[in-house]
Amino acid sequence: MNNYNNFNVAVQQALPINKTNYYRLLEKNSAFGSVKFILECCQKLELKPSTFAHAASIFHRVYDNLGRVDYDKFAIATASIFLASKVNEDPIRLKDLINVSQVTLNRQDTLNEMTNNSWILSIRDTIVQCEMFIMRVLNFSPFTQLPHPFLLNYINTLENWLPKEWLSITPLSKCAMSLLQDFYYSSSAIRYSAEQVATAVLVLTFQIYGIKIPLIDDFDNWYKLFSPDMKVELVWEIIEEILKVFEVEESLKDFL
Predict the structure, then answer these.
(1) Are residues 221 and 232 in contact, defined by beta-carbon separation less than 8 angstroms?
(2) 36-55 core/surface letters (b: 16 or more CB in 10 A; e: else)
(3) pLDDT tens-digit series, residues 57-80
(4) d(CA 105, CA 16)
(5) Residue closest to 256 by CA, chosen among 26, 18, 71
(6) Taking Cα atoms as reference points, which of 56, 109, 78 lies closest to residue 11?
(7) What is the chain's mean pLDDT, rounded?
């Protein structure tokens, strides 16, 4: 524990702390604020949606392991992005990550420091140390099976069954992937298997558009075509967890 405390002190000394919107959001809901920061950085760096999902998964797994021990969440989040880019073979330059993450947190101070080599090296060392810290916490197993390939496969299969006129006005893939991305604001996203999350997101997407699968007699259990062993109670449990994300977002709207 002493080594962890020393690491945390080093992080806090290296990373500037300023009460930007992100820090105010963090005080209200640390997980939501941290994942929002991860998403914004991934989008600015033009990383794949699956890289964001890996980064959010890594972040949630780290804090599930740490329990109540308090660390600089933005340092952990930044290192999670860097590690996720390696896991997902979506490479980025560490310098680009430093610039994007620090500008996102504190634009003016970061712009003033960009020519300060000692500052850049300090941040670089912090992220590298943080990455190694994460690897130890995760027992050197950062990879997580994501729901994305399952979900895309399910949608592609079902689109072959649906009338083309429906598909032309119903953005199923876009809606489903958006719901899946939003689910990663919650740590619940990593508490179910990839297949279970994909199935629940698929069911919710079809519920939103009121679509029924042609030639299927059992309208309530059509998802069993993909997940025959998944109980309907579990499907709705996961859907409820997804919908809770939007309730949290609504409660934080003054800080977003």
Answers:
(1) yes
(2) bbbbbbbeebebebbbbbbb
(3) 999 999 999 876 678 889 999 999
(4) 9
(5) 26
(6) 78
(7) 86
Structure confidence by residue, pLDDT tens digits, 133-178: 999 999 999 999 999 999 999 998 888 878 777 777 888 899 999 9
CA angle 29, 57, 176 (to 5 degrees): 90
Task: Tell me which amino acid residue 29 is.
Answer: N
Q: 92-99, long-range: CB within 8 Å, 24+ apart, which pairs? A: 92/45, 92/47, 94/124, 94/127, 94/128, 95/120, 95/124, 96/45, 97/41, 97/45, 97/127, 98/123, 98/124, 98/127
